[in-house]
Amino acid sequence: MGYWNDPEKTKEKYRNLPLSSQSRPQEIILPEVCVFSGDIVKKDDDGYIFFIGRNDEMIKSSGYRISPIEIEEVVGSSGCVFEVLAFGVPHESLGQSVVVSVVLDDAVITTPEEGREKILEHCCKIMPLYMVPADILVRTSPHPRNQNGKLDRPSVRQEYMVSQSKEGTI
């Protein structure tokens, strides 16, 4: 039925599936309403659909669209972190730069500097340059979570932006 008391958002997200859509069966003649949720999925050869991320979380840097989840997977595979969260922040010439916030595995890493160095080295080996984090924020406590228990990316991004504006670097 749409968004509660928000006809504009309903109009934006609930739209007719285009007649030319490849996912639209040719037998359907009447307009078919679809929810354009912003979810990014991939379909495998067996027809299973896997959730990748959200369109509104995308980082746009140097003309590339970067999924924060891709960055988080690489940083997570470094063996240095318990938690990782990637996000974009405004950058004068790139559009956005990539930042990661991590909670280090203190059984593996002894100092924040060592953690940053190992994560950056790992990322440089695996990622294209445009995806390598420009900054790595090391947290001493777990990341905040939203009502659903998911990592709260907007809150962490806001914390980072405030801390950087106090230091005068943004």
Could you walk me through the main structural features you see in this protein, from its secondary elements to its overall organization?
With 170 residues, this protein is α+β, with helices and mostly antiparallel strands. It has 2 domains: 14-55, no CATH class; 58-167, 2-Layer Sandwich (GMP Synthetase, Chain A, domain 3). Strand 8, helix 3 (112-126) and strand 9 (135-139) form a beta-alpha-beta unit. It is 27% helix and 29% strand. It contains 4 helices and 9 strands, in the order H-E-E-E-E-E-E-H-E-E-H-E-H. It has helices at residues 7-13, 68-76, 112-126, 153-167, and strands at residues 14-16, 33-35, 39-43, 49-54, 59-61, 64-66, 81-91, 95-104, 135-139. It is elongated, with a radius of gyration of 20 Å. The strands form 4 sheets. Strands 7-8-9 form a 3-stranded mixed β-sheet, with helices on both faces. Strands 1-2 form a two-stranded antiparallel ribbon. Strands 3-4 form a two-stranded antiparallel sheet.
Task: Compose a concise summary of this entry.
By secondary structure, the protein is α+β, with helices and mostly antiparallel strands.
Write the layout of secondary structure elements.
Elements: H1 7-13, E1 14-16, E2 33-35, E3 39-43, E4 49-54, E5 59-61, E6 64-66, H2 68-76, E7 81-91, E8 95-104, H3 112-126, E9 135-139, H4 153-167
Parallel strand pairs: 8-9
Antiparallel strand pairs: 1-2, 3-4, 5-6, 7-8
CATH superfamily of the largest domain: ANL, C-terminal domain
Q: Termini distance? A: 42 Å
CATH classification class of the largest domain: Alpha Beta
- The backbone outline, from C-alpha atoms, is elongated
Number of helices: 4
Question: What is the third-level CATH name, the topology of the largest domain?
Answer: GMP Synthetase, Chain A, domain 3
Q: What structural class should be given to the helix and strand makeup?
A: alpha+beta
Main sheet makeup: 3 strands, mixed
Number of DSSP E strands:
9
